[in-house]
Design goal:
GO terms for molecular function: structural constituent of nuclear pore. By secondary structure, this protein is mainly α. It contains 29 helices and two strands. Helix 5 runs antiparallel to helix 6 and helix 25 packs antiparallel against helix 27.
């Protein structure tokens, strides 16, 4: 009735001032203050409750501390309710914070009184009730901060070896609320206290919740930088499980729901702990997860970066023989067990080259790149080349992929040479391919393919083939004979197989040596070539016959040269046993039957 009478006033200030005076006058005449406080609290007159409780606490009775504890609890509840009203009326944040701080002080007083006067179980029950009340009634944006204050203060009243579980309750709630407030250092400390007191299921739940929230918040530095101690294995298990049970999407709202983000976090976590092989395994797992979708440039770039990171971190393993890890193939319906595969550094480099080749093909007319093998990527690279500034780079990449997948480079060379033989405009491609292959077998494969296709041999190709190796000219002569190309065979023999240096200085140098000139010639092939030239007749082969005659003359001169050098060397050795200057000079001069001007 008193409250209803003052509620008729229009001025709120008058109501508050006069109401407080009237309540104080009433309190002087009322003896059952706890009952009055309960009644006013039930009617949600929170201002009146504060006045009643303060008056009652300032005029204690002879009763025990239970009344004081009860009134203090009512004061805390009234302050929380007043903060809720202020929050709903959009009062200033400072005002709401002040009210809640007073409420927490009242609750701490209640816990202190409970701890002094009652049993530990009762104090623990009071802590549970107050914490639950704050969680349910306090304004949500402010609740976590002030509950943390209450829990920190309550640690004074609960020893670490209590049997009621209050300490575990406190640290568990501190952990959850610190995460809500993004107080990660405090949450980390609380987590270690939870580990020391809680069961394994609770610990697993807390670790999982902590790691995933850090992942969603983008705080990779916290996950990687914290010293987890005995929880290292649990953190790794959480990341492994989360990566295996989420989709490998690039566009996401929550990082914890993407295997790409989780595996990257796992990689950083393992590198920080110097577990380089396991970190490489995580990046390779990311590459494999994206393989079914590897037809978009963004996916291919993520794959490339993952393989590059795996390659670099695997190189950090101290012992080269330990630079490998195990990859588990995905399950299929017709297999009961998952096959295991050893992945080495060379495997990573091979897969990286293939991904780079796919990136070169993204803008071409190649359709689906996902699942393409290395040989298919090589074929597509060579097929979609254009004579621009990137052709040399693409050809070099194709050759590198072919070598990495143990594909015979000659197969690639034959394909390009065949294309050159039956079309036009690809000579530059063949040149670039042979230049990057830089192998005598590659040049011979190109020549063989062109001869099989009855295509003319470019001069640059034969010159490069001869210069590719010391015995390439002999192998090239054999190819010419196999395909019946006698003109080119005779020209090759004259230019590259029979020695040209038969001059007097060369003779003197050879005669001074103890052995004959060391120049190997394929006599069997030369005999076969000369025999084939002798069997060919007709007016249209006159140039061939002329060149064959020149070859015979060159061979005869060379054999005579070798014979004279052997004779001169023999005479020199004989006179060395009886050395006289005049005899050596006359013998050397008289034993030279060749006319140097004619040779």
């Amino acid at each position: 009735m008193l409250v209803q009478a003052f509620a008729r006033h229009d001025d709120d200030n008058d109501v508050q001032r006069n109401l407080a005076t009237a309540v104080l006058d009433l309190l002087h005449k009322v003896h059952d203050l706890p009952a009055l406080a309960s009644y006013v609290h039930a009617t949600r007159q929170h201002d009146v409750v504060r006045v009643v409780v303060r008056y009652a606490l300032q005029h204690p009775t002879d009763d025990d501390g239970a009344v004081t504890m009860y009134l203090t609890r009512l004061l805390g509840d009234a302050l929380v309710a007043e903060a809720v009203v202020a929050y709903e009326l959009n009062h200033e944040r400072r005002h709401i914070t002040h009210i809640l701080a007073r409420a927490v002080r009242s609750y701490i007083t209640v816990l202190e009184l409970e701890h002094r006067s009652t049993t530990t179980a009762a104090a623990t029950s009071q802590l549970y009730e107050i914490t639950g009340h704050l969680k349910e009634t306090a304004p949500r944006p402010y609740a976590a901060k002030f509950i943390l204050q209450l829990l920190h203060a309550s640690l004074v009243f609960h020893c670490s070896d209590d049997v009621t579980g209050a300490t575990e309750f406190i640290w568990y709630n501190v952990f959850k609320l610190a995460l809500t407030e993004r107080l990660y250092d405090e949450a980390h400390v609380a987590l270690h206290h939870v580990v020391a007191r809680a069961n394994s299921a609770t610990v697993d739940e807390c670790v999982r919740h902590f790691v995933l929230q850090l992942c969603d918040a983008g705080r990779v530095d916290v996950v990687v930088g914290f010293t987890w101690g005995a929880l290292d294995a649990k953190v790794e298990d959480v990341l492994q499980w989360q990566a295996a049970n989420t989709h490998a999407n690039l566009t996401i709202k929550r990082a914890s729901q993407s295997a790409v983000s989780v595996l990257r976090l796992l990689y950083s976590f393992l590198v920080k702990r110097a577990r380089f092989a396991a970190a490489a395994q995580a990046m390779h797992a990311l590459f494999m997860r994206l393989e079914p979708d590897a037809f978009h440039v963004d996916v291919l770039r993520v794959q490339r970066d993952a393989l590059l990171a795996a390659t670099n971190v695997l190189a950090l393993v101290p012992a080269p023989q330990n630079r490998w890890f195990i990859h588990q193939e995905p399950k299929t319906t017709n297999r009961t067990t998952d096959p295991l595969r050893v992945v080495t550094a060379s495997d990573l480099r091979r897969e990286l080259l293939i991904v780079r080749g796919k990136l070169k093909l993204v803008g071409s007319s190649a359709a689906a790149l996902a699942g393409q093998s290395g040989s298919e990527v090589v074929s597509l690279l060579l097929k979609h080349l254009t004579p621009d500034g990137t052709m040399a780079t693409n050809v070099a990449l194709a050759v590198a992929i072919a070598r990495a997948i143990d594909m015979d480079v000659k197969v690639v060379v034959r394909a390009v040479a065949r294309d050159f033989a039956y079309s036009s405009g690809t000579e530059s491609l063949l040149q670039a391919l042979l230049r990057h292959a830089h192998s005598p077998d590659a040049y011979l494969a190109a020549v063989d393919t062109l001869l099989q296709s009855h295509a003319p041999l470019p001069t640059w190709l034969t010159d490069a083939a001869v210069a590719a190796g010391p015995l390439t000219a002999v192998a090239l002569l054999r190819l010419y004979l196999d395909h019946g190309v006698l003109d080119e065979a005779v020209a090759l023999a004259i230019d590259h197989l029979v020695p040209k240096d038969l001059s007097q200085p060369a003779f003197q140098q050879a005669a001074a040596a103890d052995t004959s000139p060391k120049h190997w010639m394929p006599y069997e092939l030369l005999d076969k070539l000369l025999g084939a030239c002798d069997t060919v007749g007709g007016d249209d082969v006159a140039p061939l016959q002329h060149n064959a005659t020149r070859l015979k003359q060159r061979l005869a001169e060379y054999f005579q040269y070798v014979h004279v050098v052997d004779a001169a060397a023999s005479i020199r050795r004989q006179h060395e046993r009886r050395p006289t200057a005049s005899s050596i000079s006359s013998t050397t001069t008289s034993s030279t039957p060749m006319t140097w001007s004619t040779n």
